[in-house]
Amino acid sequence: MNPANIFNLGIKELRSLARDPIMMVLIVYAFTFSVYIAATALPETLNRAPIAIVDEDQSPLSLRIDSAFYPPYFTPPAMIGIPEMDSRMDAGRDTFALDIPPDFQRDVLAGRAPTIQLNVDATRMSQAFTGSGYIQSIVTGEVASFAQRYRAVSRLPVDLALRARFNPNLNQSWFGGVMQIIDAITMLSIVLTGAALIREREHGTIEHLLVMPVTPFEIMVSKIWAMALVVLTVSAVSLIVVVQGLLAVPIEGSVPLFLAGAALQLFATTAMGILLATLARSMPQFGLLLMLVLLPLQLLSGASTPRESMPVAIQYMMQAAPNTHFVILAQAILYRGAGFAVVWPQFLALALIGTGLFLWAQTRFRSTIATMA
């Protein structure tokens, strides 16, 4: 191994990447706009859901229900008639349409248990599922307090004091931004490294490298360190500028420690990119193969949903994936301020998984080079 060859080949990869405008746009978007959108545009909680109300009763009770819906959970209700209800929902103007029937208050006071109709646009799945429960709770509470002539306050024998640690206001943007950086690190490291190898093959420059006094190991390592350096640099800038600066997310732990873990993650994922590139013969094949690998890595790593809610077999299988350990150490460091004494098992797991993927990729790369030669 000649370090000078590895360095010069890596510089060649950086220059090649700089001349690829599509890849440069992808890198900038993934660590800026994508992070901001993931943190702010897709809240899991109900937020300003459009609701329309058909009030056929026009009683004090129905007016009380009408006034119970207000921001930030709902937009101010649109008071409509029955003919408008279906057309507005078909046009996507309302997520919820509440129909209060005639003589509703009279039936409530008479103890007849009347029914209120709630129509839900289920194409907006997150709001439909959460909002239905909110609306049921609001209507039930208003009807119960009206029937009792006062708002009852339940007295429990035990007072449960809830204290949220690390995110006291349960702000969704604190979670979404950091998790998007983690997903972008995995995606771009695989894409850039694999695309660099396939680009060499499609442009015919891999044959030029084969006649030079360089080894397959030097070619592979040069692509890994060059692409890993790019992703590590932009991820650090995104964490400091976008997450800490623009989104004002407090980082509890050490940023250099997180970047050290990200470097181990990049060692594993860039080797995975080389491995996938040796299995694919063209860029379209690489893209299809990437979808089969990248989606399970991101969805089952614990970044989107807790691993404890997954089947036990999936939990054991994902122990072999680098993303699982990277998500654990990233959340522990950035959210809970953990030090190396806490996350060293994840560092060790990433090092072992990365070494295994590197050796596997090197074997495949040597055989591919031998076939081309």
Main traits of this protein?
373 residues; mainly alpha; abc type-2 transporter like fold; 2 domains; 4-stranded mixed sheet; 15 helices; 4 strands; 4% strand
Give a description of the structure:
There is one protein chain. The chain has 15 helices and four strands. The protein has 373 residues and is mainly α. The chain folds into two domains: 3-41 and 167-372, no CATH class; 51-148, 3-Layer(aba) Sandwich (abc type-2 transporter like fold), CATH 3.40.1710. The protein has a four-stranded mixed β-sheet with strand order 2-1-3-4, with helices on both faces. The longest helix has 33 residues, at 340-372. The protein starts with a helix and ends with a helix. The model has no long low-confidence stretch (mean pLDDT 87).
List the helices and strands and how they pair.
Blueprint: H1 3-18, H2 21-31, H3 33-40, E1 51-55, H4 60-66, E2 78-79, H5 82-90, E3 96-100, H6 104-109, E4 117-120, H7 125-148, H8 172-203, H9 205-210, H10 216-246, H11 255-279, H12 283-299, H13 312-317, H14 322-336, H15 340-372
Parallel strand pairs: 1-2, 1-3
Antiparallel strand pairs: 3-4
Short account of what is shown:
With 373 residues, this protein is mainly alpha-helical. The protein has 15 helices and 4 strands. The chain folds into 2 domains: 3-41 and 167-372, no CATH class; 51-148, 3-Layer(aba) Sandwich (abc type-2 transporter like fold), CATH 3.40.1710.
